[in-house]
Structures are given as structure tokens and as C-alpha cells.
Amino acid sequence: MGKNIVVGQSGGPTAVINSSVAGVYSQAKKLGIDKVFGMVHGIEGFLEDKICDLDDYLATSTGVEMLKRTPSAFLGSCRFKMPKIEGNEEVYEKIFEVMEKHDIEYLFYCGGNDSMDTVKMLSDYAAAHGKSQRFVGVPKTIDNDLPITDHCPGYGSAAKYIATSLKEIIRDNSSFGAKKPTICIVEIMGRNAGWLTAAAALSKTVDCEGPDAIYLPERVFDMDKFVDKVKELAASKSSVVIAVSEGVKIADGRYVCEIGREVAVDAFGHKQMSGTAVKLAELIAEKTGYKTRAIEFSTLQRAATHIASLTDINEAFQVGADAVKAADEGKTAMMITLDRNGENPYQCGTSAHDIHDIANVERKVPDEWITPDGCGLTDDFERYARPLIMGELTPLYTDGLPAHLVRKES
Amino acid sequence: MGKNIVVGQSGGPTAVINSSVAGVYSQAKKLGIDKVFGMVHGIEGFLEDKICDLDDYLATSTGVEMLKRTPSAFLGSCRFKMPKIEGNEEVYEKIFEVMEKHDIEYLFYCGGNDSMDTVKMLSDYAAAHGKSQRFVGVPKTIDNDLPITDHCPGYGSAAKYIATSLKEIIRDNSSFGAKKPTICIVEIMGRNAGWLTAAAALSKTVDCEGPDAIYLPERVFDMDKFVDKVKELAASKSSVVIAVSEGVKIADGRYVCEIGREVAVDAFGHKQMSGTAVKLAELIAEKTGYKTRAIEFSTLQRAATHIASLTDINEAFQVGADAVKAADEGKTAMMITLDRNGENPYQCGTSAHDIHDIANVERKVPDEWITPDGCGLTDDFERYARPLIMGELTPLYTDGLPAHLVRKES
């Protein structure tokens, strides 16, 4: 009987999370691993023994290429928090039982902070109970907030979508050149870390002036100063476009989007953000009388594989492949990190890092990359982020639309 | 002294409105016309003698190709309603004065219903005052609501963006396969005509089930039936995605988005729509407790040139070119129409049609193309719309982003 492995996807999808599955699969087959299983809906589905055999989809190179072009979690995702080991041993035993049933020796989990906690908990349990199975995390998050790694697969594509769409929005907003200013407020994901909102700065190029102000959650948001800033901008130009993080908070700690209303909470206790741009647009309309428009990129910023970054796709594939290599070399309780080795030209390698340094740690935008006025990003940020959005992978168009690979529900 | 012409852009931008300017320019140069001027911000700018010389941008084929890849109105747009001739002769005289000053013999105006009214008024004035200048309308509107023409340039690209994004959203929404349903409501432009919202049906392909329900403004919207429909859908599937027009109205004639709040009005007396999806998501959350998400495509659906339809780009170019031909053949008071000549393969020609049959007439989705339950589109609609989204024009990427042509402010 051969050696088998399993890969799962967890948390919010990204445009390239499936490239990591393709990387895991391709490297495993190179190493002669027998079966590469996919968890259907992450560890939550795995607990119910819901798996699929990736040979059914990826045995041909066409399958791998289609998977790279498929948005959202091909295997299905979940938001499942592993309980404390003590008192919940049956949950862990169940996972190892399913692994043993299918001769699974390595488990790979693609995700962000919460998912890396799952890798940590499982490898801690294995270490404490003398289990030989290995656990390696594959980084994935549009939020780009994992520590140690230079950046996270998923971020580059979200950043490319944000910058591309902002260029188009800035163009659109300026088309009327009205005597009365039009203020467009664009809300971008990122609950606590402003990496995605910072990507708005990348829309500033030789043919685009970029947004007029960018507000990250790393700085306290001041409603009065915001109104003053808009008035100041509108005094000299008729089209004003402002990028704002969904997670901006005022001085008393409340999110802007929860002022005056209740906000739902998810399985991890995270508040469901939304409505920040609408709230600010209403404020501006009320205080200035200017025409306003609120735009929320919503899930498109994590799902727009049609304009994914090729750099990101390749790196997502690489971290998946290198996770398999690491496990096969005997490593466990690790996450693969991306390590920037060169700037000009940009070069990036990988290594494996202890999961305990990573799980549950959130990395924010460095303070020195935010301009002194708190409404912009420095050139250092651009030097960091620009290489991550480079390159494209042409979709396969059928019926006039990008084609995706479909998992059959069993 | 040579013969000159002028072209203007008016109303909401589209992804391909600039291809029509490229078509006007290219055909004019073929015919030996001397100067091709662009109105800066439409007829409103023209009244102030604001024009540019398109040779400055389009004299090379690279310029023309870049213009085809540039979103929003390159020349600048306006929302200017021509006043009644009687009592406002000075406005008309001013326009003819500017035309005569620059030896402009033909005027081309790219726009939708309101803009075609401008063409009608100007040609009526010319006819009444023995003026020899000619006026030809170039159709443009994402709304696809101009009569006579088979469809409108701008619609195919907006439809392609909507269907592409919906495929990605449907994928994303289904990633969690939660026990508790997730209801995603997507708001699409179209104040009175449901063509854009209908394009949501195009996302149904071999690899995508499409939205679960589609609500057009052509039918009265019933809040209670809507809630029942969502409950019925959620009983059998965990991911429910619904497309809804921003312009849906309840039985008493109010827009859904204006229930409980005031809505601003533009220069033409059109209400500024927005907030329909949020309103309906709140309703569903309140009545069912399901997790909901509201997405508005907003201006991206008219600005996303990076995923424009090549068919649309080519047809937009063609109507611009054929407007010049028509004027040069002596025609005036006309709009160029697209005439479908073949289905399989799709073929489309153009002709010139009397502007008086077109201006201020709004064409809606035929009742027989809406399914009996009022929540979907028939195969006939798909046969009509699918050819319009076919083909792509690869953007020129610089700095990792689609590059655009920039007009220099004078």
C-alpha cells in the first residue's frame, strides 16, 4: 500500500488558493506519493470523512491549468476553530482516525491566521501522543497579515484587482468634470491590517493619479478630519476618489461601520464588516452637499481570478509544492514562508518556519510605510508591493466567459 | 481650407465609448477629412469652445489601439439637456458659431437616449434655419435601451463584466457549504430597463449554475414573494445568489431603494439609484436569520475595460466609422443602428435611421423573454445576448496594470 497525503482549504477564499492545491498535487506526484486526497470543506468536512481523490481532476496537465484559473476554494472551505486539546481529545482522535483509515501520512492546510492555528494544534497533538503524521501549513490570505513570510499568496492578486479596478473607477469618476465635485469612497477589505487598502496606492501610475487619500485601520480614524480633508481636496479638483479600509476605527474603538447599528459576528468572533463607505459617503453628503458615491469591492477582490497576478499564481503553486517537499524531508509543525531574495529583478524563494511563531499572530502595515498625514503610502510600500501584482495568466474563455474547473459533489 | 468634423461623448461612460471615437477618427482620416476635433465634456464643453485635436492622440495606430483599451469617456462627458429651441435660440446659435469658427461640417455625438435628443434638437434647428451642417448619433449605452437598433455598443462589455463577476461571486459564495444558508444579493444597474440585470443569466454555463433568481424592473417587485422565494431556495441549497436591478419597484410605484429614505435626482430628473441590495439583504436577515451579503457592481460594470467584449469593441468602432460614412454621404438627423443579419454564426451590419424615431424612446426587455415566474430569462434572451459578450482584447499591461490613454488638460 502506498503513502497518501491530504490537502485542505480553510477560511476566506483567494483568487489563487487553488494554485496551492495544484502545487501540492504536482509535487506529490513527482515524489511518487500514491493518493492525494482533498478535504471537502476543510477540517470540518475531514472530521466527517469527506474527502475526494484529486486524480479525478488533476491527472492531466489541462486539469492543473484549469485549477489555476478557478476562483474560490475548489475543495470547499470552512471556518472551524480547533477546540483546546484538553477535554476535546475526541475531536483530535477522530482526525487521526480518518488519516489512518486512508493511510494519510502528511496533512497540508492552506489558510491564514486561524487555519495556521489548526496546523499548530494538530502537530502539538501529534507530538504529545507520539503520532508520526506530519503537518505543514500553506500560507494563503488576501489580508497579507501572516508574520515571518515576506508576503502571503492571495495578496498579490487581490492587490492587482484593487489597483486595476481603482484605475477604472478613477477614470469613470472624472468623466463628468462637473463644476460640483463628485466624491467616490471605495471600501476595501482588511479588518485589522491595511495591506489590501494600501494596494490602492498601486493604481498611481504614469497614466493615473491614484486615489486622493487612503485610510488604513493602522491609524485611528477621525471623522472631522476626514470631512476637512475631503473639503480641501474638493476645493482644487472635481473628482475625488478615496480608498478606505472596512476596518477603520474611531478613537473610542468602534468601527466606523458599526456607528449607529449592530454588526454580526462570525465563528471566530470576528465582526462582519461592511457599510463603511456608505456611512462615510452619507457623512460627506450631509456635511458638504457634494455628490457622493460609495463602492464596496466586496468578495470580488478575493474571487477575481480572471485578473489574478501571475507572480501570485506561481508563488501559490510553489508554497504548495514546497510544503510537500518539506514534509517529505521529515518536517512537521511548519508553515512555508516566502523569502524575498532580490529586488531588481524581484526574486523570491521559500523556506519552512516553525508554526508556533506564526499561528494567531497578525502582521500589520509598518508604521513607517504610512505617510505622516496618515492618508497615503510611501515609496517603500510601493517597492514592496508592486512586484507582487506583475504578470497575468490568460483565462480560458468559453461561452465568452472565463472557464472554471468544477468539483463533483459526491 | 479643409473640411473638419467634431465628435463628443455624453452621458454615463461605457467600457467601449472610446472605441467609437477611434472609429470616427479612423474613418474620417480615410475619407480625407482634415481635422477631427473632440468636444471636451460633450456639448456643454463645446458651448464654451472647449475642443481638442484628435491628431494629438490618434495619429499613430498605437494611439488608436490604446484608446480602444481606455475606459470612461476619453474626451470627458456631460449631462446637459438641450433646452427647447423656442426662447433659447442663443444656445443653438452659440453651437453653430463654434462649428463655423472651426469649419466643422459634421457633428457626431456618442450617447444614449438623452444624447440622441441632443442630435435631434440640433438637426431640427439646422433644418429650420437652413444650416448645412450634418448631425449623426452614435449609439452608446450600457443600458441597451435604445430602440430600433438590435443592441447598443457598451452593453456587451457590461454584460461580460456582470456575467464574469457573477461566476466568480457564485463560486465564492458556495465555498463554505455551511449548514446555514448564505444569501448573496447582487445589485445591477438599469433604472427602467432590465437588460443589464438580465445579463446575469449569461453566467449560467456548463461550469456554473448561474444566479438562483433574477429580478428585472420590467415586473412589479413584491417584497413578501421575494422573501418566500429566498426561503424556498434556501431549503434546498446553502448558497443562494440573487441578481436584482437597482430599479425594481413595488406595487405603489416606489423604488425598493427609496423605501424609507430620500433619493437624490440628477440633471435629467432621474433618481440616483443605489442601496437596493442592502435593503433586500436587511429584509432577508430580519425575516429569516440567514447570513446575507449585498454586492453592488456600481460603476465597475460600465468601466471595466480590462474585460471588455471584443465583439462590443469592434461594433462600437464600426458605428463610429459608419456615422462618418453616413454624414459624408449627405445624411443628417440620423443615428447609426446595429442590424443583426445572422445567428449562427452571429453577423451584424449597420444602417442609419431617423433620429426622430429614437430620441427619448426607451426599449425594455420583451415580456416574453422573462420566465413566467418573473425570476428568470428564457433561452431566447440567451440566444440574443450571448454573441454580444464573445471575444476579448488583451489589455496592454504596464506596472502590472492595464494601461490607458490620457488626454492632456489644456
Brief summary of the model shown:
The structure is a homodimer of 410-residue chains. Chain A has 410 residues and is of the alpha/beta class.
What is the domain tally of chain A? 2
Q: Strand order within the widest sheet of chain A? A: 3-2-1-4-5-10-11
Largest interface, Cβ cutoff 8 Å: A-B, 67 and 67 residues
Radius of gyration of chain A: 22 Å
Q: How many H/I helical runs of chain A?
A: 13
- Overall geometry of chain A comes to globular
CATH topology heading of the largest domain in chain A: Rossmann fold
Oligomer: homodimer
Question: Could you characterize what this model shows?
Answer:
The structure is a homodimer of 410-residue chains. The first copy, chain A, is of the alpha/beta class and 410 residues long. Chain A folds into 2 domains: 4-153 and 305-361 and 390-402, 3-Layer(aba) Sandwich (Rossmann fold), CATH 3.40.50; 157-302, 3-Layer(aba) Sandwich (Rossmann fold), CATH 3.40.50. Helices cover 34% and strands 18% of the residues of chain A. Chain A contains 13 helices and 13 strands. Chain A has helices spanning 17-30, 42-46, 55-58, 61-68, 89-101, 113-128, 155-173, 195-198, 223-234, 276-288, 300-303, 310-328, 379-385; strands spanning 4-9, 36-39, 51-53, 104-111, 134-139, 182-188, 213-215, 239-245, 291-296, 334-343, 346-354, 397-398, 401-402. In chain A, the strands form 3 sheets. In chain A, strands 3-2-1-4-5-10-11 form a 7-stranded mixed β-sheet, sandwiched between helices. Chain A has a 4-stranded parallel β-sheet with strand order 7-8-6-9, sandwiched between helices. In chain A, helix 6 (113-128) links the parallel strand 4 and strand 5 (134-139). In chain A, helix 1 (17-30) crosses helix 12. The longest helix of chain A has 19 residues, at 155-173. At the A-B interface, helix 7, strand 9, helix 11, strand 12 and strand 13 of A face helix 7, strand 9, helix 11, strand 12 and strand 13 of B.
